[in-house]
Amino acid sequence: KKGLERLVAQDLQVLYLLSEFLAGWRGMRVFDPEGVVRLFERSLQKELNFDYERNNIIRIRENLGGESRIHVPDVFPTLSSSRVLTMEYLAGEKLSRLRTNPIEPARAQELATSIAVSMLRQVFEHGIYHADPHPGNFILMADGHVGLIDFGNVGRVTPDMVHGMLV
After folding, report:
1. Which end of the chain has fewer CB atoms < 10 Å from its terminal CB, N or C?
2. Contact 131, 62 (CB under 8 A)
3. CA 92 to each of CA 14, 79, 164: distance values in angstroms, whole numbers, following the listed order
4. Residue 122 carries which DSSP code?
5. What percent of the chain has pLDDT over 70?
C-alpha cells in the first residue's frame, strides 16, 4: 500500500498543478478546478483508508439486516486495520458477467428489483448508501442472494435532504 500511497500523492500533485493552470483561465474559474481536485483528494483518502471502508460495511450490513436479498459481507475487525481489510469471501460471479452470459428475464427482473429496493432503502431509510453500484460490485451468489462489495465510496443523506427529494 505504501507504493500506492506514493503514486496517489504524485498523481494528486500533477492534478493540483493542472488545476492551478486551469484556474488561470477566466472561463474555468467558474468550475473551481482546485476545489474539484480537493474534493477528489478527500474521496481518494477515504477509499484508501480501510477503517473507513470497514465502518461503512458494518453500518450498511446492520441497516439492511437479514431480510434483504442483498448480502453485505461480514468483516473481521480484529484482523483489520487502516491498511488491511479482512472480510467474508462471497463466492459467485460478478453481475458484470451478464454482459456476455445473460440469464433468464424473470431472474434478471428479480435481481434488478432486489438491487433497486436495497439502494432505495439505503438512501431513503438509512441515510447511508453504497455510492459505487456498478455491475462489478455485485456478486451473484449460489443461494440466490446478491452480494455487494467495495464500500470505499459511500454517500450520506440527512432526513432534511430526503424530505427535499420527496417534495
Report:
1. C
2. no
3. 39, 24, 38
4. I
5. 99
In the chain, what is the straight-line distance between the N-terminal and C-terminal CA atoms, in Å? 45
Q: 96 near 135, Cβ under 8 Å?
A: yes
Do residues 81 and 127 touch, judged by C-beta distance below 8 A?
A: no
Query: Global pTM?
Result: 0.74
Report the C-alpha gap between 29 and 31 in whole angstroms.
5
Q: How far apart are CA 69 and CA 145, in angstroms?
A: 5
- Separation between Cα atoms, residue 3 and residue 14, nearest integer Å: 17
Per-residue DSSP letters for 35-91? HHHHHHHHHHHHHT-HHHHHHHHHHHHHHHTTTSSEEPPPB-GGG--SS---B----
Backbone angles phi, psi at 132, to 5 degrees: -140, 55
Q: Is the pLDDT of residue 152 over 70?
A: yes
151 close to 53: Cβ distance less than 8 angstroms: yes
pLDDT tens-digit map of 23-55: 888 887 788 888 888 888 887 777 777 898 999
CA distances from 38 to 41, 42, 78, 154 (A): 5, 6, 32, 17
Taking alpha carbons only, the member of 86, 99, 87, 167 closest to residue 134 is: 99
